[in-house]
Specification:
single chain; alpha/beta; 7-stranded parallel β-sheet; 43% helix; binds D-gluconic acid
Length: 255
């Protein structure tokens, strides 16, 4: 029997960047808890393929392909949801990119692309979702941060700034939306075994550093972020607001 504190039955979750990686893991985890999933990605074919696989696994999923850096596409997507009677009860702002380069070599366009994808998108999609959540008197916003929401690492400045911004955007959302029955929180994944980190995982020196620096002495698996996502999407977190939960094997807890 599902504990009602963690039951998402009857809820619809939009998870950005959920064709693969952490977003896909969270989409499947929220589906297992009973939610209907709107799978988002910029690539419609990849989103459709993910929906097909999720449906084959018995999950309630539909595609919602749009570019998270396009305000026009975001607004159009929410207008489609309105027209189709789809209420986004849970928003997971997961979509993000990484771009590793020392700042003195970094083109402003590359800086801006990371900020737009990883931070501004969360504001725009959050705004469109919150307008409707406020009208309904309830909603859950889960922004995906990072260890770099708290600490900086050389050569990933735009990502670090964006993820630091995600932490504070989450607090700003709580400040404005909590009174309307919306809980806005964040998850800060540690070093996870994802495509985005493929080059790091394959680098023996970086791999050794992660395993040495992390009290758990290992990289995290994408499925290990799901528990925090279900908690923050569920009634269990109805009095939690503006927080960030680090799922990092203890890395941020130690020197
Ligand atoms: C990097 C990594 C990190 C991780 C994660 C850590 O280049 O350092 O990509 O940014 O992806 O964000 O929390």
């Amino acid at each position: 029997m599902t504990n009602p504190l963690f039951d998402l039955t009857g809820r619809t979750a939009l998870v950005t960047g959920s064709s693969r990686g952490l977003g896909r893991a969270m989409a499947e985890g929220l589906a297992k808890a009973g939610a209907r999933i709107l799978v988002n990605g910029t690539d419609a074919a990849r989103a459709d393929a993910a929906v097909k696989e999720m449906r084959q696994a018995g999950y309630d999923a539909d595609a919602a392909a749009f570019d998270v850096t396009s305000e026009d596409q975001i607004v159009a997507a929410f207008e489609r949801f309105d027209a189709e009677g789809i209420a986004v009860d849970i928003l997971v702002n997961n979509a993000g990119i990484q771009f590793r380069k020392p700042m003195v070599e970094l083109a402003t366009a590359d800086w801006q692309r990371v900020i737009d994808t990883n931070l501004t998108s969360a504001f725009v999609i959050g705004r469109e979702a919150a307008k409707r959540m406020i009208a309904r008197g309830h909603g859950k916003v889960i922004n995906i941060g990072s260890l770099t929401s708290a600490l900086a690492r050389a050569t990933v400045a735009p990502y670090t700034v964006a993820k630091g911004g995600i932490k504070m955007l989450t607090q700003a959302m709580a400040a404005e939306w909590a009174e309307h029955g919306i809980q806005a929180n964040a998850i800060g994944p540690g070093y996870m075994l994802t495509d985005m980190n493929e080059a790091l995982i394959a680098n023996p020196a970086f791999d050794a550093w992660v395993k040495g620096r992390t009290p758990s002495k290992r990289w995290g698996r994408p499925d290990e972020i799901v528990g925090a996502a279900v908690f923050l999407a569920a009634p269990a977190s109805d009095y939690v607001n503006g927080q960030i939960i680090y799922v990092d094997g203890g890395m941020l807890a130690v020197l």
